Amino acid sequence: MKKLIALMVTLTLLASSLASCAQVLPHEDSAGREETQNAAENASDSTDAGDTAQDTVQGEEDTAPLPTEPPEVNGGEIAETVLFDDRDVKITATELKSTGARVGLTLLLENNTDKNLKFLSGTLGYSANSVNGWMIEGGYLNTTVAAGKKSRETVYLDGASLALLGISDIADISIAVEIEDDNYNTYLRTGPMELRTSLADGYEYTLDTYRKAVDEGVLNANGMDLLIIDDTMEYDYHGIRVLSQALVKNSSDSFVLLTELENMSGEDIDVFSQGFSVNGIVVQGSRWSTDTVLSGKRALMVANLSDMLDKNIWELIGLGEVGKVDYSLGIENTDGDDIMDAKTISLTVPGAVKDVDTSGTELYNGNHIRIVNKGFTEDSLSFSDDLHLILLLENGASGSIVVSDVYDSMSVNGFMADCIFYNTTVPAGSVAVADIEISSRTLEDIKVTSIEDIEELEITLSIRDAKYHEIASPTVRVEK
């Protein structure tokens, strides 16, 4: 469930491809992480609210030039420190070394058990690392230590990623390690292991270093256009607060939402984002990401809005500028139990165009629900020959609906076809994009090489209410 491109580079995130048209699990960011992949990387590449007073920063004439070298980080020094010693496992921090744009923390891992053990940190399964009170996704560790053996490993913290959080001096590091046996069973979790550096004394933890860095132009200096930053939203649940939201446009022309959080609840939590709409159109109807925020820490959640739909789909439905973003944040404990139901908050960009194109051919109209055909589009990824059928789902009912496909129900030109269709939640009174991706393997088998070769397509959809009670199962037909 854990999520979340160094600020100095541009990286195109690749969408995963699945091979059947069965109901697909809601999307969560799940690309394997390397040492420096974290929230800042995604930002670089890629409030029940009416309009509220918001600070707007439009493209400034005198923005700082793009730096030629990554920012240096001062890691300070550490004394050799035993971080963990229990159940025949010992972890010792032996050295902290700054090497220009990154800092390496060397750990001595000792496995005194009679079984091989794998040590993991900063992974999808267990990511609870922090620096100076900010949650990070750096500190990646994945190594096996044989029974009775030791291993010296170095985990790295990326300076460009820390720079976005306003961190240039490292006062403390917190590392959490999960240890598994050969059967992938959890042997133990260390919990956060705190390590103070020689720079800790006098460090000002109350300062919002991220906002200070943004105000001083860290985004513009790294090729990102800050469209708006807003700290007026009301999201406060027992000390769990949204401190700010920002919308940036990066060097790849992707729109990226940055949500700054603080957890002063006294409990470690997971915060999840879901139900993103842009200019009134739902572009991601299910859970998008989940971030662990330890008690007393802050986090920067990153959502690349442009990754939620293929860029050709953005063009097909007339989404150019991002004028308004609505999304929901919910809170769980680290066991996955709900603490607070998801609450919708919004961010509006004054003066931005909010137009979308909802025209198209009606395929279904019943139960206060309409399905409109927007047509076919090619996949924008150069390595993919998949085609996409784009539908608009208009929910005029009094409650949310969930739309999915009926398994093995699609045909193209009379031939059965495989597809990918994520379950899509459509709130009451909303319009959502349904992206039905048709496998290139299927298209090749039935001699379809382009959109022009598709004479007709049929697919049966399942429409259910929020409690998954069936409302309708219409078979829709698209003809040339």
Instruction: Calculate Rg over CA atoms.
Output: 24 Å
Fraction of residues in helix: under 10%
Q: Based on CA inertia axes, which overall geometry fits?
A: globular
Structural class given helices, strands, pairing?
Answer: mainly beta
Number of helices: 6
Number of domains: 3
CATH topology of the largest domain: Immunoglobulin-like
CATH class of the largest domain: Mainly Beta
Euclidean distance between termini CA atoms? 41 Å
Low-pLDDT parts are: 1-68
Q: Mind telling me which CATH architecture of the largest domain this is?
A: Sandwich
Give the biggest beta sheet.
Answer: 9 strands, mixed
Q: Determine the mean pLDDT.
A: 85
Overall description:
With 480 residues, the protein is mostly beta strands. It has 3 domains: 40-49 and 217-348, Immunoglobulin-like, CATH 2.60.40; 81-196, Immunoglobulin-like, CATH 2.60.40.2550; 361-479, Immunoglobulin-like (Sandwich). Helix content is 7%, strand content 44%. The protein has 6 helices and 34 strands. It has helices at 39-44, 159-164, 209-215, 218-221, 311-316, 440-445, and strands at residues 55-56, 81-86, 89-98, 102-111, 117-121, 129-131, 134-136, 141-145, 150-158, 172-175, 178-180, 186-189, 193-196, 225-230, 236-237, 240-249, 255-263, 269-278, 281-293, 298-304, 324-333, 338-348, 361-366, 369-378, 387-395, 401-405, 411-412, 415-416, 419-420, 424-426, 431-438, 456-465, 470-472, 475-479. Strands 18, 19, 21, 22, 23, 24, 25, 29 and 31 form a 9-stranded mixed β-sheet that branches. Strands 26, 27, 28, 30, 32, 33 and 34 form a 7-stranded antiparallel β-sheet that branches. Strand 6 and strand 7 form a beta hairpin. The longest helix has 7 residues, at 209-215. It is globular. Mean pLDDT is 85; it is low at 1-68.
